Amino acid sequence: MSSRLRCALTAAALALVTLAAPAAGADALARPAHPAPAVEAATPRAPADWSSAVVDSTVARYTPDTIGGWSYPVGLYLYGQYLVYRRTHEPRYLSYIKEYVDRFVDSAGKIGQGFNSLDSMQAGRLLVVLHHETGQDRYRIAAQKIRKRLDSYPRTADGGFWHATAASRAHQLWGDGVYMVNPFLVEYAREFGDRAYAYDEAARQLTVYGGHLQESNGLLKHAYDESGAAGWADEDTGRSSESWCRAVGWYSMAAVDVLDAIPADHPRRARLLTVLRRLAAGLEKYQDPATGRWFQVVDKGGRSDNWTETSCSSMFTFALARGARQGYLDAGYADVAERGFQGVLERISLGGDGRTELSGISVGTNVGDYGFYVKRPRATNDFHGLGAFLIMYEQLRHPAAAAAHGGPGGTA
Fold it and tell me: What is the per-residue DSSP string for 260-299?
């Protein structure tokens, strides 16, 4: 199918969704496409497709106007929703994403974001997605603002993007940051033909971050401060003290996404594969044998106050499964991923209203010590967890669909 025809069909589908909606548009978007699962003896029956159930439940809870501002947790969740749309072709799912993004991007492509942190760039993936699906040039213009911002964005001496430009984040690399910008970058390259810069930059960022954050056990510390000024920075290494699970999870997913994109003969590919394989070995070592999940502080699961966290367990499960499928990792890691998958499924259920409930998710977190991490509140249906769950579920239960779509790292 030609790009022009695909875009025309997508536009027509979106128009039909809009025309079909009743006057109370927000209420219509909030309503699930299908009735809630029947309740039997006060326990709803588990759906055959947890991804669709999570999306239907979430869009029933929030309209595109109430789901939140321009942010990476919402961006992560909506990217997961997009993967479900790519498989199911349910037009409501794409229409919802478009209505959210159109709150921030006007018809001329103007977007009111300064992009002074890597976090602020993650939702830029949705701009690439919408250009791919609709062909509307305003999404290219808005995405280009992020790409151009990287030309002047501050870096460490060896080229790593600072986590943010604020004085409190100057000279710092956080494991979270590689996912906030690099999947966007390679997807931008695929869509708009900027591969010469984007592929090399993304691979460079991951190898620089890996060099500063990875420990001998294969895991990554949460953060590194080149200046050594942060209170958490070790005076010898500049690293923070702990391997916080979601920071490691962000890195693991970004590594797979970038490997999916860059050429087989890219000069940084071998180094990135080494980092990923060492990380995978560490993840296998520290996987909780009782649950299949991973702990909030990954390598200290033996402590009584540590706990297994859902979002990072989903991230690790995706990365290991995708890595094994693509040949980046030994095929045996698929078994490690399956144990993780089953462990995450123990955290999802249906409430009395028939909507999904995903529990055990750490709220957003700064860099800290062990006590700080294990005392973080545990939320239900937090977008960090919902987005990671969707990315994981699409890979583990619908791998053929994921491969057909260029993998979760791509829209090609």
Answer: HHS-TT-TTHHHHHHHHHHHHHHHHHHS-TTTS-EESBTT
37 SS3 class = coil
Range 31-34 contact pairs with CB under 8 angstroms and sequence separation of 24 or more: 31/60, 32/56, 32/57, 32/59, 32/60, 33/90, 33/92
CB neighbour class for 194 (10 Å; exposed up to 12, middle 13-18, buried from 19) = middle
Question: What residues act catalytically?
Answer: 176
DSSP character for 235? T
Contact 288, 308 (CB under 8 A): yes
Task: Please state the pTM of the whole predicted model.
Answer: 0.89
Backbone angles phi, psi at 48, to 5 degrees: -75, -25
Helix (H, G, I), strand (E, B) or coil at 195: helix
Per-residue pLDDT of the chain (412 residues; tens, 9 = 90+): 545 545 555 555 554 444 334 333 333 333 344 444 544 445 677 888 999 999 999 999 999 999 999 999 999 999 999 999 999 999 999 999 999 999 999 999 999 999 999 999 999 999 999 999 999 999 999 999 999 999 999 999 999 999 999 999 999 999 999 999 999 999 999 999 989 899 999 999 999 999 999 999 999 999 999 999 999 999 999 999 999 999 999 999 999 999 999 999 999 999 999 999 999 999 999 999 999 999 999 999 999 999 999 999 999 999 999 999 999 999 999 999 999 999 999 999 999 999 999 999 999 999 999 999 999 999 999 999 999 999 999 999 987 666 554 444 443 3
E runs forming strands in 318-379: 348-350, 356-358, 361-362, 378-379
- Could you tell me the CA-to-CA distances from 325 to 279, 322, 332, 334, 400 in Å, in that order? 17, 5, 10, 8, 11
Helix (H) or strand (E) holding 173: strand 172-174
Two tokens, residue 123: 């939702």
Q: What burial class does residue 77 get, using C-beta atoms within 10 Å of its C-beta: 0-12 exposed, 13-18 middle, 19+ buried?
A: buried
Question: Could you say which DSSP state residue 244 is in?
Answer: B
Exposure on the CB side of residue 209, measured as CA atoms within 13 A: 34
The structure tokens listed for 255 are 């590594």
Burial track 364-397 (b if 16+ CB lie within 10 A, e otherwise): bbebbebebbbebeebbbbbbbbbbbbbbbbbbe
- With CA atoms as reference, report the closest residue to 409 among 120, 83, 143, 95: 83
